[in-house]
Design a protein that fits this description.
alpha/beta, six-stranded mixed sheet, seven-stranded mixed sheet, 39% helix, binds nicotinamide-adenine-dinucleotide, 484 residues
Length: 484
């Protein structure tokens, strides 16, 4: 596969068309024109990929950990040397990323691979005391086998690298089903893994749609685990099917993260932080602070500063380093944002700013004031550049408002008072809380994941290894061969 815009399936080390010969168009969100195409896999292609992965698992899991570490490090080196030159344009065009977001994804991918490589040699087991002195008890940590990786479109490289690198480090083989919006960058990453010398059958990619390609993958009887980063609706569907087979399943799903702005903040700084945490990548970020809760004494001044911060965001060309964000991924995503906005404004909600299309699929930073708490813009994930600001009487009220959500992915608390910050961190029900920062934070070592509708399990560093390995208790009777 030399032309990165013409994707084929990767099965057992071979680039090939789908069995039915079908392909689908991949669009560039900025122009809504055709960027390329990819093979459209269905159930028989998926079955072939899973069969290959079983073979790949036998090869890869039997390699010495230091060889798995070395291969992942070589993949990191390859991306560091070639990623910017070969992938930057593809990432910008296929996902509608700004140049700085695309650069960041490539750099983060290198970091993730290096951290995962280190984990390959740290699959520690354990022993525990046995009351019978003739018996020894050990705990082994073993890979699951073949893991199905189903990935989203918003950070189509970095999230995929994270979802693939750690299971591989633990000795698993993978079958990847990337988002149908962004299959091409996923195929480019798979190529880098092959270049790095990972046994070809251990990394397979099937491109296609959720129902036709993703569903047969996650329900295939030879799959041993599933990792999904995607919407809550998809997570519920996959989770329900996975439970029929009691499969290990890691689900990183949607969010409706709160940013608390407490009374002691510098409102101008808080407004800049809030705008970055909300509008990066047009709000197509699971941890975007899509609910902003401001303590009453800071409310009026924050609104003024936040309006100015939103209206100063530059929405220019994706390759202009000053561009804050670009288009939504597709028309459906744009319509969802508009519908969430209408659902609030038709019920009398004031618009602080925004509410219009800038061009194509690019939507202005949009801020609702005090929407009804049962409207979709407050309750559901919009996954676009729309947020709400509400007033809290005090810290306890702010924490209660933050917890008024079925999601629980991340939160930010802006304050200079460490005790207030810690009180909020202890009180907010979510997978992470960041004091002095917005809610959109990443770290390759951190346990990233959520509570409630935001998912199950954690990814990052050793936490990913726990997700993609099983523990096995092995015991030994010392006296059984006693010659006496
Ligand atoms: P999506 O759920 O529409 O799709 C995700 C993947 O699932 C795609 O590859 C899709 O083809 C596949 N899929 C869809 N239906 C399927 C089925 N029935 N069986 C198997 N696979 C199926 O999500 P998206 O729109 O691509 O991504 C955006 C969502 O991802 C948002 O909700 C966002 O919050 C979430 N997300 C979460 C995190 C996190 O860390 N929690 C990170 C990024 C994105």
């Amino acid at each position: 596969m030399s032309d990165l815009t013409q994707g084929q399936l990767l099965i057992d080390g071979q680039w090939r068309e789908a069995g039915r010969g079908q392909r689908f168009d991949v669009l560039a969100p900025a122009s809504e024109s055709v960027l390329g195409s990819a093979a459209q896999a269905d159930e028989p292609d998926v079955a072939r990929a899973v069969t290959a992965a079983r073979k790949g698992f036998a090869q890869w899991s039997s390699l010495a950990p230091k060889l798995r570490e070395a291969a992942l490090l070589r993949a990191a080196d390859w991306i560091e040397q070639h990623g910017l030159a070969q992938w930057l344009d593809l990432l910008i065009d296929e996902s509608g990323s700004t140049i700085s977001k695309a650069r960041g994804e490539i750099a983060y991918s290198v970091d993730l691979l290096r951290i995962a490589a280190g984990e390959a040699r740290r699959l520690y087991g354990d022993t525990f005391p046995n009351d019978d002195p003739q018996r020894v008890s050990m705990v082994f940590r073993e890979p699951l086998g073949v893991v199905a990786i189903v990935s989203p479109y918003n950070a189509p490289l970095a999230l995929l690298v994270k979802m693939v690198a750690f299971p591989l480090a633990a000795g698993n083989a993978v079958v990847i089903k990337p988002s149908e919006e962004t299959p091409l960058i996923a195929l480019a990453f798979a190529r880098a893994l092959l270049e790095a010398g990972i046994p070809a059958a251990a990394v397979n990619v099937v491109t296609g749609f959720g129902a036709e390609c993703g569903a047969p993958l996650v329900s295939h009887p030879e799959i041993d685990g599933i990792a999904l980063t995607g919407s809550t609706a998809t997570g519920q569907r996959i989770g329900a099917a996975a439970m029929q087979r009691m499969l290990r399943t890691q689900l990183e799903l949607g969010g409706k993260s709160a940013l608390l702005v407490l009374r002691d903040v510098d409102v101008d700084k808080a407004a800049t932080i809030a705008a970055t945490g909300m509008f990066s990548h047009a709000g197509q970020i699971c941890m975007a602070n899509s609910r902003i809760v401001v303590e009453a004494p800071a409310y009026d001044a924050f609104l003024k500063a936040f309006k100015a911060a939103c209206e100063s965001l530059h929405l220019g060309d994706l390759r202009d380093p000053d561009t804050a964000y670009g288009p939504l991924i597709n028309r459906r995503a744009l319509e969802k944002v508009q519908q969430h906005q209408r659902n609030a404004t038709e019920r009398g909600t004031e618009l602080l700013t925004g509410g219009s299309v800038v061009r194509g699929l690019t939507y202005a930073p949009t801020v609702l004031l005090e929407p009804p708490r049962d409207c979709s813009a407050w309750r559901d994930e919009s996954f676009g550049p729309i947020t709400s600001v509400v007033k809290a009487n005090d810290l306890d009220d702010a924490i209660a408002i933050a917890n008024d959500s079925e999601f629980g992915l991340s939160a930010g608390v802006l304050t200079h008072n460490a005790q207030w910050g810690f009180r909020a961190a202890r009180g907010i029900r979510s997978g992470s809380v960041h004091i002095g920062m917005h809610s959109f934070q990443s770290n390759a070592l951190a346990p990233i994941g959520g509570l409630g509708l935001s998912g199950i399990g954690r990814s990052g560093g050793r936490y990913s290894i726990e997700e993609f390995t099983e523990l096995k208790w092995v015991s030994l009777e010392l006296g059984c061969d006693d010659p006496a």
